[in-house]
């Protein structure tokens, strides 16, 4: 028999839940509980009014971009896709240091990948005017009809704020799911394009992520014949529900602009990539023009469910302080997640450039598109 030696006993100290909690990565917070960025605290003025921007000519900077991205990715230490169809994370690049060529390439890559995530950015420390100067490269800045802006000024900065000292956002979603897929401000005649969110302060340990879904893949994952049925349809988008919710704040309600209602194509084309995308969302899209209500509701609910449940063309963006998310709203839907404890602070700002009027997809006859779709052919779906 082989000789069996006694093994020395190793004393194992049990790890307590308290020790585990200490080891967890915590996000930056002030010891006294005050906000990290007090100049960006939300300000509500019920008397404030602004003028609509009106029609303008838009030239997408992605048209000028070098498709090899030499100016955008020159200093990148690493970059990787968050999912096959949407989302790319880039490290080692400061958005604030990009010149006009780099910003052109940023627009193109956002149009191709839908969403770009930049870490450890100094963007939040630049000040209002420099921040707006960078984002205006992509179009004139939108002013929200009722969402807060900083007390220190800059009506173009839309403040995203949730904390125990201001539960306005929480209350607006009380009794329903806060996960609501949408494209910001789709009722605008000229809708948002390359949009920026800068995270100033995240919930203590986790949560407060943004979900992003590719509207391009949402379109192309439908059968070719069904896609053809959608092309040529238009739908009405309105922010009347959001305005009604804001008016529930009574004398404190902010209503800077009139309620918007605009007709847009159900399938649009991106002006740079020429890719087609679904352009409907359950927050703002009200009905399909020319359909009876039951028909419209049935089709829109199918499309909403298609967007919400197809996680194979979505990604989740996790924030840290200093994270900047840049995404193209013409080809994506997104949603917040209020999954962190009530009272914890989530603080960010959004700058939203408006872009082109949505371009309708051209209605085409069946030209053998299914036969050219390799996956559908392999699965005998044609």
UniProtKB/TrEMBL annotation:
Report the PANTHER family cross-referenced here: ALPHA-KETOGLUTARATE-DEPENDENT SULFONATE DIOXYGENASE
Which intervals hold domain TauD/TfdA-like?
79-352
Q: Does the keyword Phosphoprotein apply?
A: no
Instruction: State the GO CC annotations.
Output: cytoplasm
Q: Which UniProt keywords apply?
A: Dioxygenase, Iron, Metal-binding, Oxidoreductase
Q: Where is the signal peptide, in residue numbers?
A: none
User: Does the record's keyword annotation contain Transport?
Assistant: no
Tell me, what is one Gene Ontology molecular-function annotation carried by this entry? Answer: 2-oxoglutarate-dependent dioxygenase activity
Q: What is this protein called?
A: TauD/TfdA-like domain-containing protein
Name the family.
Answer: Belongs to the TfdA dioxygenase family.
Q: Name one Pfam family in it.
A: TauD
């Amino acid at each position: 028999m082989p000789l069996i030696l006694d093994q020395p006993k190793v004393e194992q100290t049990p790890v307590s839940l308290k020790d585990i909690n200490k080891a967890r990565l915590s996000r930056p917070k002030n010891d006294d509980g005050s906000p990290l960025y007090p100049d960006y605290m939300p300000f509500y003025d019920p008397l404030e009014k602004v003028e609509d921007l009106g029609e303008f000519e838009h030239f997408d900077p992605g048209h000028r971009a070098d498709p090899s991205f030499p100016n955008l990715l020159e200093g990148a230490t690493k970059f990787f896709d968050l999912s096959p169809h949407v989302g790319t994370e880039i490290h080692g690049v400061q958005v604030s240091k990009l010149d006009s060529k780099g910003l052109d390439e940023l627009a193109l890559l956002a149009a191709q990948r839908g969403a770009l995530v930049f870490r450890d950015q100094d963007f939040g420390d630049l000040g209002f005017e420099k921040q707006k100067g960078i984002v205006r490269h992509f179009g004139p800045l939108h002013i929200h009809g009722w969402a807060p802006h900083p007390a220190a000024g800059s009506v173009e900065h839309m403040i995203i704020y949730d904390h125990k000292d201001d539960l306005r956002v929480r209350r607006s979603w009380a009794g329903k799911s806060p996960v609501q897929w949408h494209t910001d401000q789709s009722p605008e005649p000229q809708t948002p394009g390359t949009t920026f969110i800068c995270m100033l302060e995240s919930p203590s340990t986790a949560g407060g992520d943004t979900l992003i879904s590719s509207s391009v893949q949402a379109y192309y994952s439908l059968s070719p014949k069904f896609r053809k049925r959608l092309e040529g349809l238009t739908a009405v988008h309105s922010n009347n529900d959001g305005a009604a919710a804001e008016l529930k704040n009574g004398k404190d309600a902010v209503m800077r602009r009139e309620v918007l209602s605009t007709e847009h194509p159900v399938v649009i084309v991106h002006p740079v990539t020429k890719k087609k995308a679904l352009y409907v969302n359950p927050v703002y899209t009200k009905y399909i023009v020319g359909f009876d209500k039951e028909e419209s509701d049935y089709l829109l609910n199918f499309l909403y469910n298609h967007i919400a449940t197809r996680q194979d063309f979505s990604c989740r963006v996790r924030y840290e302080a200093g994270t900047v998310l840049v995404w193209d709203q013409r080809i994506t839907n997104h949603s917040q997640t209020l999954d962190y404890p009530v009272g914890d602070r989530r603080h960010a700002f959004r700058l939203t450039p408006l872009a082109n009027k949505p371009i309708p997809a051209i209605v085409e006859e069946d030209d053998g598109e299914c036969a050219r779709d390799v996956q559908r052919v392999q699965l005998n779906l044609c």
